[in-house]
């Protein structure tokens, strides 16, 4: 079990495609130091799967996470993440599964996530999230629980 902050050493793993660091004691925000951001983002565009679940990460989900264009799976569940789900996640057009459950996320689920055609599993349970639905001439709001009837959404 590793007890440390976000592993900045992953920048040196230029061929890494799957990153699984679940069930450790990583803590602090999920960020990279400023001087490494550009280089780190170049490396992260070859990842296909990232699992940072069951740690103690806190703070917000980084907005630039949407730049991970090749990602097929992302698991940030069972942490202490707060704030909104970044709307930039809609840019992850190859995403097949997304698990943000068991955090402290709040606000609305970005409607752009509903347009991700490959997304077959989307778990945001155990958060305080709502989805704003647009209809012709009206706007309605519903809870994640109300959406749980959709097969791809676990609430």
Automatic annotation (TrEMBL):
Bilayer topology term: Single-pass type I membrane protein
Tell me the compartments it is located in. Cell membrane
Any one of the GO CC terms: plasma membrane
Major localization listed first in the record, in broad terms: membrane
UniProt keyword terms in alphabetical order: Cell membrane, Glycoprotein, Leucine-rich repeat, Membrane, Receptor, Repeat, Transmembrane, Transmembrane helix
Q: Which InterPro entries does the UniProt record give?
A: Leu-rich_rpt (IPR001611), LRR_dom_sf (IPR032675)
> What family is reported?
Belongs to the RLP family.
Write the protein's name.
Uncharacterized protein
To which species is this protein native?
Gossypium harknessii
């Amino acid at each position: 079990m590793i007890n440390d902050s976000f592993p900045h050493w992953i920048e040196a793993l230029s061929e890494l495609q799957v990153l699984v660091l679940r069930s450790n004691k990583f803590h602090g925000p999920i960020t990279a130091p400023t001087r490494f951001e550009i280089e780190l983002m170049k490396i992260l565009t070859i990842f296909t799967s990232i699992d940072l679940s069951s740690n103690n990460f806190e703070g917000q989900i980084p907005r630039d996470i949407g730049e991970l264009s090749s990602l097929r799976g992302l698991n940030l569940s069972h942490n202490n993440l707060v704030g909104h789900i970044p709307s930039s996640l809609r840019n992850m057009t190859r995403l097949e599964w997304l698990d943000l459950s068991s955090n402290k996320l709040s606000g609305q689920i970005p409607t752009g996530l509903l347009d991700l055609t490959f997304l077959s599993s989307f778990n945001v349970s155990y958060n305080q999230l709502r989805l704003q639905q647009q209809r012709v001439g009206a706007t309605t709001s519903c809870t994640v629980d109300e959406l749980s009837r959709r097969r791809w959404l676990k609430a």
